[in-house]
Amino acid sequence: MRNTYIMKHFLKFLILIVMTITFTLPVYGYQPKGSESTKGAKKQGGKGHHGYGRPKGPPANIPAHIKERTSPDGKGINLNGSQIGVKGIAIMAETIALKNVVSMALKGNNLGDEGVRVITQSSTFKNLEFLSLWDNGISPEGIKMLARGANFNKLKELNLMQNNVGNQGVVLLVDSSNLSNLTSLDLSVNKIGDKGAIAIATSPYLSNLKKLDLFNNQISLKGLRAILQSKTLVSLKEIDFVKNNIDDESAAKLWESHMNSCRALKKGSDSKKVRIPLCAN
Known about the structure:
Strand order of the largest sheet: 1-2-3-4-5-6-7
Number of helices: 10
Oligomer: single chain
Number of strands: 7
Mean pLDDT: 85
Radius of gyration: 20 Å
């Protein structure tokens, strides 16, 4: 009877954390993950839809394509699926009209680590707040550049879905003060295990993080427990850990224990001083 009760409440929690928020989407600029068909991509293990009818290479005229996909005020650009490569991002770096860009959607552009290097070194991108690098073949080496680059110290949303981040990349990323203003972090489909989850849970730079996506990784109950018991993820409101190495029953029991901690915290005299993730802090 008790197990049924716990499972019922856990499933409610599960539905809450994987809900997709519907946004009114702009034609240009950085777009939240829902606008990039993440829901469909997740159902297919992060691979996305088939590529029928899609371009198989970069645009013939990259500068013209960049101009077409840039917002009138130059603050946003959406190049999802454009396959501009390192050559294209280098052109962007020299484009005066992008000097005030704050949001860039660069999903599927074959940027690799060298593309990250270009973004890091160009003053054009010094005002970035919203950045999607989904599916660009970025390794821990690229993550290191991102973590150390001055152009990334204003980031509020960072999407690194479906790269080659791994535990090593996560450790490098979350040990950076560049993440101090971050409210949303997507690390789904990156072969991250408990070491990466624990690094996230103990990072001193993620106190403003509200949304964390760890869909389709290799995290076990140990990693999830570390995140739920984190003393630094105090603003976390939403997490997706679907398709990890966690069975539903164990996760349900852990969640019930976490909710008991939340209730005890609210009743305690120090409730205003102590905060833990995914509670109504």
